[in-house]
Amino acid sequence: MERAILAAGERHLARDGAAALSLRAIARDLGVASSAVYRYVDSRDELLTRLIVTAYDSLGDAVDAALAEVGSADPREQFRVIGRTVRSWARTHPEQFALVYGSPVPGYDAPAERTNPAGTRVTGRLMAVLLALPRSPRPALDRAGIGGSTYAVPAEVPPGTAAQVMTVGFAAWAMVLGTVTAEVFQQYGPDAVADWAAHFEGVLELALATVTG
Q1: CATH of segment(s) 58-212
Q2: Please, what sign has the CA dihedral across residues 189, 193, 197, 202?
Q3: How much is the average pLDDT of 179-206?
Q4: Which of 46, 48, 66, 134 is deepest in the core (most CB within 10 A)?
Q5: Does domain 1-42 correspond to CATH entry 1.10.10?
Q6: What gap in Å lies between CA 199 and CA 176, rounded to an integer?
């Protein structure tokens, strides 16, 4: 029943969007009384939380599998693999991508203790790859005043890592994720980019250049 409820929830995401998610509508879809659904999922927010964790884990599993295929490849190639996998997953699962990387759902506050472990799987992998890449000095970031208190450094980052590494890493990830978002949501319009695959490969190389200088 729990699997059926989650599957119905994903269908409703695709059809109506997260803001319109309703346990009563899901019960009607499943042909059961709403009380039967509430025995397994006690609120819309609980269902949203489970769907978010499921989406993040689906993406994390895809990235882990893709990285396992390339093994101990050059970190540059691992970075490309992560980016390509995120794009492929988002194109295949646009509703789940919208749920975790789109606009916040009105009236819903995700419980960090439940969503963060799944939600940081890909960024944790990415951070490990970024730390393995060669880096050049960044005088411009010195002038910008980036300091040790700028970030809450995650556990994956070794103590003493310069805050500038975080700046560059976040910038590279924003380039990748922002391009995927623009494609999935057609933010540039339907005809602005004729070949998204080629455009994305170019963005990956620009992001790598951002990291390595």
Answers
A1: 1.10.357.10
A2: negative
A3: 95
A4: 48
A5: yes
A6: 11
| Mean of pLDDT over the chain | 88
Q: Which residue has the tokens 């490990």?
A: 128
Q: How far apart are CA 106 and CA 130, in angstroms?
A: 34
Q: Which long-range contacts does 161-164 make (Cβ < 8 Å, 24+ apart)?
A: 161/131, 164/138
Residue 76 is predicted with a pLDDT of 94
Asked whether the whole model's pTM tops 0.90, one would answer no
Cα separation, 180 vs 119, whole angstroms: 17
- 194 burial (CB, 10 Å; 0-12 / 13-18 / 19+) is exposed
The token pair that represents 187 in the structure block: 């933010």
pLDDT in tens, 76-116: 999 999 999 999 999 999 999 999 998 888 888 999 999 99
